[in-house]
Amino acid sequence: MSSFPETFLWGAATAAYQVEGAYLEAGKTLSVVDESIAPEYADTSIASDHYHRFKEDICLMKELGLTAYRFSIAWTRILPNGRGAINQAGVDFYNQLIDELIKNNIEPIVTIYHFDLPVVLQEEYGGFSSRKIIPDFVAYCRVLFEQFGDRVNYWLTINEQSNMFLLPYLISFTESSEQSLLKQKYEMNHIMTVAHASAVKLCHELLPDAKIGPALGVSPVYPKTCNPKDVLAAEKAEELRNTFFLELYCNGQYLPSMQAYMKEHDCLPTIEVGDMALIKEGKCDFLGLNYYDSKTVEHVTALERGKELVINTSGEVGSTEKEVVEGIYKGCSNPYLESNDWDWEIDPEGLRITLNRIYQRYQIPLIITENGLGGIDTLTENNQVHDDYRIEYLKKHLEQIQLAIVQDGVAVFGFCPWSFIDLISTTSGFRKRYGFVYVDRTDTEVRELTRYKKDSFYWYQGVIRSNGKRL
Ligand code: BGP
Questions:
Q1: Which of 55, 261, 332, 424 is the most exposed place for a label (fewest CB within 10 A)?
Q2: Distance of alpha carbon 212 from alpha carbon 215, whole angstroms
Q3: Best residue for ligand 1 mutational test, from 393, 426, 428 (most atoms within 8 Å of Cβ)
Q4: 3-class DSSP assignment, residue 386
Q5: What is the greatest pairwise CA distance in the chain?
Q6: DSSP letter assigned to residue 249
Q7: Which residues of the chain have pLDDT under 50?
Q8: Roughly how many angstroms between the first and final C-alpha of the chain, as a whole number?
């Protein structure tokens, strides 16, 4: 028995800077992520060369059976100066991509902003640390809605605002010495929320039939024990990491506990007249969820100092250093869960928990915009990749989505695992692969970039063909 609706979108996801390459071709300029990939890994100049091979890649999508494809548009391809003159070559590229998808009955799901702020705007005014970004972002959105809105029904505003807030190096906002880092983060988050809401409003005005929402990075938080101190730490962590953003997106308000937190820590953002009304008005139609793992925390004593999270970028097991949020919580590992080589704790039930925590509260349609397993894949001599670990991961997560739909009444309308094809991992280059399709290159050798179907490709093909009856 399949419990996936007949209209369920069976997708897969990528993002421009990770897959396209051609980073300075046909008028494109650099974005902050083009510059921030660690030097020991492949840069974004060629990536998976999707820019030149998109037709071949869409043939593979067709063979896989995808009914949706989530990709992002590079702001720097459309507006090389961040604003102003439109680069026709950039528009042409995405027109061809979208047309080719539609020709193959694949629904395009477009991410407007996936970490790749134009460097020019970063240099001019510090990107999202300045309110000057708001009109520029809205103008960029207008170009996309006008150029592609006749064919694109699903839009994602900002990818993982929550992660950009937690790990600001992802967008390298300009740190200034005048304000505490915490204050700058909350200012940036407010500006991003206003930008997001403005995009939603504009989309509703220009494209009344389209649907728009954010892609939020979510990880449910668990207490280490049932000691009420740990439970409280977990609730606070859940608010800081997840509910804070959900309340802004879905209810247009700052969560009362977060207001108290921001007051106490002297990091209340500057809220201009009209901002909160705009945030309320710009309510999204659905939520995209990027889900990879869960987090576990315990209480922290008054004597312990705060410590930033240090993420594992090497794939060396155990090299993550968990964060301590002074007076609130500290991260710890979960003895019930296994981790991947990057210490991400694999937790399929956590996805069902997340879907429930969000849906039972907001009752807004949900789509999984990312979910997947980063691993070191081996291409055999006869060009096969036996990625049974990836199949296992995705199968278990799909089972939990199915349970959330059938037993919990959650409205999930699509699944876009990360990633359709191998691409540059944001933190770990080509060493850490996610795709259904293997790309023959490494971080140091570009090779022929030949595409090979992994075992997970054939597995997902069967899932899609059976509309989720055969997992
Ligand atoms: C998400 C990003 C993706 C992708 C993914 C996997 O945070 O939206 O762009 O990179 O995580 O992360 P990583 O590449 O670090 O393994």
A1: 55
A2: 10
A3: 426
A4: coil
A5: 64
A6: I
A7: none
A8: 11
Question: 42: Cβ–Cβ under 8 A, 6 or more apart, which residues?
Answer: 424, 429, 430, 441, 442, 443, 444
What is the Å distance from ligand 1's center to 264 Cα?
32
CA–CA separation, 132 vs 126, rounded Å? 9
Q: Whose CA is nearest to atom 14 of ligand 1?
A: 425
- Assess contact for 138 and 92: CB atoms under 8 A: no
CB-ligand 1 contact for 425 (6 Å cutoff):
yes
How far apart are the C-alpha atoms of 269 and 471, rounded to whole Å? 46
Cβ 160 under 6 angstroms from ligand 1:
yes
pLDDT of amino acid 303: 86
- Residue 118 has which token pair? 């134009």
pTM: 0.97
Q: What is the ipTM of this complex?
A: 0.98
Tokens 């970004």 appear where?
133
Angle, nearest 10°, between helix axes 88-103 and 50-64? 10
Looking only at the bridges linking them, the beta strands covering 338-339 and 345-346 are antiparallel
CB 78 within 8 A of CB 143: yes
Contact (Cβ atoms closer than 8 angstroms) between residue 401 and residue 461:
no
Would the CB of 427 count as within 6 Å of ligand 1? yes
Catalytic site positions:
370
Say how many C-beta atoms besides its own lie within 10 A of residue 397's C-beta: 26
Q: Which atom of ligand 1 lies at the shortest distance from residue 313's CA?
A: 15
The number of angstroms, rounded, from the C-alpha of 395 to the middle of its chain's C-alpha atoms is: 20
Q: Which amino acid is at 338?
A: E
The reported pLDDT for the residue numbered 170 is 64
Q: Please work out whether the CB of residue 44 comes within 6 Å of at least one atom of ligand 1.
A: no
Give the containing element (helix H, strand E) for 214.
Answer: strand 211-218
* H or E stretch covering 55: helix 50-64
255: how many CB neighbours lie within 10 A of its CB? Answer: 18
Q: Which amino acid is at 86?
A: I
In this structure, how many other beta carbons lie within 10 angstroms of the beta carbon of residue 383? 11
Q: Quick one: pLDDT at residue 171? A: 63
